[in-house]
What we know:
A: mainly alpha, B: alpha+beta, 5 helices
Amino acid sequence: MGASLQEKSVWVQTLGLVVGLGGYFAVAGRMLASGVRVPWAYVPLFVVSVVFMVVILIAGLIVAALTSRDEAADERDRLISWRAEHDSGWLLATGVLAAMTALVAGVAPILVAHLLLLSLFLSQLLSFLLRILYYRRGI
Amino acid sequence: MPIGGLEIRNRIRKLRFECGEMTQQELADRVGVSRQTVNAIEGGKYSPSLEVAYRIARVFERSIESVFEFVESNPAPG
């Protein structure tokens, strides 16, 4: 079964997220482990990661649009999106609670900020992976 | 997908064949969904809304019951 434009766009967003923010965490994780605690040290890395992500999204969505019929999202696309958001939201909530706890416990703000960003990244990644699963397996 | 021991089956493939081998894309265009959604409905991977089910039945000029049927997939004992 060939993928629809909506499904292809989910694949592209997943790729962009993994390469962009995944790459950021691969490097930032090493920086954090080596003791870099200055927030400004992470800004250039973050900007480059976001640019990478945007470039992948633009290129991928152009390719997806050129190789698919121009179709708006239908009820199945919307249901899949809603269910994936519903099933992945707990991860972000857990990350926010963990970050609040870390803040109260006096953990360095740069670590708390990364914990929040990581939970956002993982929650979004889980949402995309669930959408792909629901497209493939059925819902 | 079975819902609480009930499974929705359909005769869309057979009806498409009877309608001059209508393609999934033709049906999708007339119903207003993607071809992939028609494929998912036909293969039992997605249960459509009542509105889409009615639209599909209308394309084939059939009643909704003659296109879709509830089947008890796991009947309760006794």
